[in-house]
Amino acid sequence: MLQLTFNIALTIMERTLTILKPDCVRKNLVGAVINHIERAGFRVVAMKKIRLTTETAGEFYAVHRERPFYGELVEFMSSGPCVPMILEKDNAVADFRTVIGATDPAQADAGTVRKLYADSKGENIVHGSDSDENAAIEAAFFFSTEEVVRGN
Ligand code: UDP
Ligand code: MG
């Protein structure tokens, strides 16, 4: 009897988009936060240091356009360089939100990035995508396909 066995190993790793915000860069915490992220099991597959303009910051956060904090947020996000990164891990989006903690550091769990390092709800060190769909949109906002490098 002919027996055919197929072993197909499919690894589809999830991605999320983070930004180490201008307060993180100003406080010289880029390395500390990346260390925290790597220790939590994420792999950096794309990374750069850039400075957003008010226009690009406004575009990135366009979903919050009608919120009272929008102007302040755009001003803050364009106030200095930041470090966007694409991260890979199983369950990346949800797990990264757990690692960074609540938006307001006062509400964030002990040991989270925002609890450890953030000063306020506005200046909260780090961005994390809120869904797989937005992770893909946000990754494309900062990185071309050539800038995303998988593997070791
Ligand atoms: N933000 C703020 N005041 C608020 C809520 C949010 O300044 O009351 C800022 C803060 O920097 C936050 C960003 O706007 O990270 C986006 O808000 P969101 O509710 O999406 O929070 P996040 O997803 O970053 O936790
Ligand atoms: Mg958000």
Q: Could you characterize the architecture of this molecule?
A:
The chain is of the alpha+beta class. It has one domain: Alpha-Beta Plaits, CATH 3.30.70. The protein has helices at 22-26, 30-39, 54-60, 70-77, 92-100, 113-117, 132-142; strands spanning 14-20, 43-47, 83-89, 126-128. Helix 3 (54-60) packs across helix 4. It is globular and about 70 Å long. 30% of the residues are buried.
Give me a quick take on this structure.
The chain is of the alpha+beta class and 152 residues long. The chain is built from seven helices and four strands.
Main beta-sheet annotation? 4 strands, antiparallel
How does CATH name the architecture? 2-Layer Sandwich
The figure for the number of domains is 1
CATH superfamily: Nucleoside diphosphate kinase-like domain
What is the 3D shape? globular
Binned, the helix content reads 25-40%
Q: What structural class is derived from the secondary structure elements?
A: alpha+beta
The tally of helices reads 7
Reported by name, the CATH topology is Alpha-Beta Plaits
List each distinct ligand once: uridine-5'-diphosphate, magnesium ion
Major sheet strand order: 2-3-1-4
- CATH level-1 class: Alpha Beta
Order of helices and strands: EHHEHHEHHEH
Q: Provide mean pLDDT, rounded.
A: 95
Instruction: Give the low-confidence spans.
Output: none
Spatial gap, N to C terminus = 42 Å
Report the sheet-strand fraction: 5-15%
Rg, Å, rounded? 17 Å
